Amino acid sequence: MQVKQSHKPSVGRLPDERIGPQPKRIGKDVITRYLKLTDMAGTVSDVLDDLGIVGTIPASRLRPTIAAARVAGTAVTVRNVPRRTDAYVAASEKKVTMAEIEGINQAEAGDVLVVQGLRDISNMGGVMATIASRQGLAGAVVDGGVRDVGHSRSLNFPIWSKDISPITGKWRAVTEEVNGTVSVHGITIQAGDLVVADETGICFVPQHLVLEVIDRCEAADNKEDDWIANLDKGMSLPEVVKKIYA
Hints:
The protein has helices spanning 28-35, 40-50, 87-93, 100-106, 126-134, 149-154, 210-232, 237-244; strands at residues 56-58, 63-64, 71-82, 112-116, 139-146, 159-164, 173-178, 181-184, 187-190, 194-198, 201-205. It is an alpha/beta fold.
């Protein structure tokens, strides 16, 4: 009997044991509900606070390459660590040990690539952005550096990153794992969690809470719409304050 693979066939950059199983994807209908939120990251962040979950990163810490971009999708994760050998030796030997392409390979259309990367060097460049865009990924979140941002912008492929740097990571980073657990700005993310990101920041929602969070977010959106409608109808500020803080 043929055993079903736990992940897609590798492109050859990582051994199978360092590629985690395919995460369960969040349904497109649920993703659409998140994208319809008026203030997506802000509303999700408020609900995460209500649930006692630390899951939000301000855009001032991981900045978007495309200011107006809004994405929501299932997280596919990549974990990079520093390479122990000298970068110049690695360059002369042409030994590339960074394999973010395997994360892209394991992703499906609509997913968001989430990279635990290295500071001050590029963990993702123009070629990878091109491949990710052609594979239909929604965007990428990189706790570290990226480069060729003009190229990724021309593709309308948004990336949220800590640094922008021309220094290549292919001689300086090692990809340890794909679709495992990663840490981004101190927040632990599992492959399969929901990523929402806009110009104000990024939120990570544990997969088992995705439906509860969107239900609460939609209720909060409806309340805000009601407050604004009351203001438009001439309700006084004290009356609106009573509604907001009741």
